[in-house]
Amino acid sequence: MNRIRSRFAITLSALLFLTVAARVSAQEGSRITGVVVDANGGERLARVRIRLDAAASETVTNDAGEFVFDHVSADEHTLLVETVGYRLHRTTVVASADKPTEVTLALTADAVRINESVTVSADPFVSSVAAVPSSPSQMQLGAAEIRALSSVLLDDPMRSMSSMPGVSVPDDFHAEFTVRGAPFARVGVFLDDVPMRAPTHTFGGLGDGYSISALNDQVLQSMTLLPAAPPPSFGGTTGAAVVTETRDGSRDRTVFHASVGLSDVNLLAEGPLSSDKRGAWFVTARKSHLSYVINQMGGSSDAKVVFKDVQGKLTYDLTPKHTVSLHVLAGDSRFDAGVVANSPFAAGPTNTPAAGPPQGDKGRFTNVPLTSGSTSLTKANWRFIPGSTLVVNTTVAYQRGQDDAESREGDALASSRHADISGRTTASWFRTPAAPLRVGYEVRRTDDSGTSYLSLYENPAFRAANVYGGRSLSQNAFAEQQWASPSGRLRLTGGLRWQANDQVDDDAVLPFLSSSIQVGAASKVELGWGQYAQSPSLEMTMLAQTGSRLTAERSTHYVAAFEHRLDSQTRFRIEAYARENTNVFDTPDIYPRLQAGTVTWPASAARWTNAYDGYSRGVEVVLHRRSASRLTGWIGYTIGYNRQRDKKTDVWFDSDSDVRHALNLYGGYRVRPSINVSARFNYSTGTPVPGYFSVSDFMSETSQVSNVRNASQFPSYQRLDVRVNKSIVIKGWKMTAYAEVMNATNHQNFRNMGFSGNFKDQAFPHFGSTLPRIPSVGVSIDF
Predict the structure, then answer these.
(1) Predicted confidence (pLDDT) per residue in 522-534, tens digit
(2) Domain ranges of the chain
(3) pTM to 2 decimals?
(4) Domain spanning 132-782: which CATH class is it, in words?
(5) Phi, psi (5° rounding) for residue 258?
(6) How would you list the strands of the sheet with 49-52, edge to edge?
(7) Could you report the per-residue pLDDT of 549-562, keeping only the tens digit for each?
(8) Which one-letter DSSP state was computed for residue 709?
(9) Level-2 CATH architecture, domain 2-107
(10) What is the 3-state secondary structure (H, E, C) of 8-72?
């Protein structure tokens, strides 16, 4: 009996030992392996931190985006995935005891709609916006790049464009830029498919003041620059086009984002409309005060610059074929220059004493101390997909805005009012994948009134002659046909745009052609040609020269480019361009000049006219790398010649926005899972000083009036910005701290602030310094 009991005990012990051993073996043998990728494009992400079960164990992905957890239990585990520049990702994984558990984790970049799946991008350098791929000249910024290039201090996506090749910034205080010599007035800015009438909040007077974009970087999916030969659907201006694409809200879960900097507060909330994920919403609001900036520039202690805006968007799928959306943007601004002389926001012509400026100060008194403005845009869209080959988009939009400038005494100096209502329908027909056809029609009614801001440069006696008001009606239609050869080596696009405006006599019929020819496995040649027209505004037509009627400004674009891919994420591109302009709008008679040895001022209010013909020609070289986890950025160099001919005198001169040499650099690198560093550098030769001035010293504003237009040139512009982002995860919340130094080398850049005088025999140009070295910090929280 004892022997039987002994054997039973031994057997039981053996079974217990084997069971425990098996469990230990299972625990030691279970493994979780995986790869982390960018949800938009599918690129593998290196240097991403993955925490297992509330940091019981953690690892970092290798250069191939791979990670491994060994010796885990065959059980349910929570993975927390985080890296700077991407949203915090949490997922549950069940580890198998029999074989390694493999997972793919898709991370969504900050400011991008949450997406749990992977969207594979065919080409990292081609925009996904409809019709843009047919453009022979383009460059896109994704949401992550917009965030990285928008200044921490100013949080302005429009300023991110200033780092792109071919783009120059005449004045750091303004969210405006020139593109290959084309001033901002010749650049069309589209919010989705709607041309924006007022893409910036503006403070201060003409040539003075400040502006910031009306767009919020938290809701932009991409910004695409079309510097030359844009397709007909993005015509309407003679210089270039910027196509901004807003995202929808998250359809997966409700999230919140808040960021606070030295000059603004930015709040965002987004989420699904229903549990079935048929719709989404977002609301974002900003409020900014720029006292810190003004103080850093030595400005008036009581100067105030404040703006606030709000955006909201609803998107809902009525059926699989019908989707509707409503997008609202509204904001207002106020600028008070204060009462201290020498304010960086205060200089001007109209309040200069009639006897001339006091010695040593050259009339630097407050010109437009009080300005206020508001802008709003509401657009509703209906997308209809009746079948697999046809997509129809219909958009109705209403835009409204106003600006007022007044003196300290309450006198109205200048103002503007506008109200635009438009309707647009486009249809894309994919009869075959190789030959899509896109057509569209738009009609717009505009009401404009005000007192022209040109009055700030003129004798106050002319102010009543600068009042305008009226209504205009414009229409345009376009068609674009694409075609690709069976091998895909040859792609052609032909298009036509028709424009009509009741303020001009002739309608414009504008052809467009582009081609892409694959000349090797990694090389292609792109060619483009197009004609463009820009109608005058109501202010121009109503304040035109007596007895004359303005015609539309015209331009013909030529593009020839060679591109070679060094690898799938790196390209080298050289592009030659030419833009031939005719009937360019201007008011050339506004400037004082030297005549018969005497300084003479205009004897009457300046009037708009088709003043010039001219051209912009040049070559641009770009080395561009786009990577989500390694070095990303570009080096761009542009040499350009931007000249104009006065049609009245037949005299040639460099245009006001002529930039002969421009160098644009940007680079970003994630050195650790929680740290990203980036830098941008801009250099350009100086633009001409507008008008008839010969300047010998910009610091003291020593100059004399000349009889030669644009005779002097500003000193060269250069600016280096350096930025570090640091992310921290605390109890499921992600906080990102930002530190930035703007103009790190403290280079003094000058800007044009207009001119003044006694409106008789004295005239003086005025210049100001732009941003000095300014450090700034900010923090954002996602939860």
Answers:
(1) 999 999 999 999 9
(2) 2-107, 132-782
(3) 0.88
(4) mainly beta
(5) -140, 135
(6) 57-60, 49-52, 76-82, 89-94
(7) 899 999 999 999 99
(8) T
(9) Sandwich (2.60)
(10) HHHHHHHHHHHHHHHHHHHHHHCEEEEEEEECEECCECCCCEEEECCCCEEEECCCCCEEEEECC
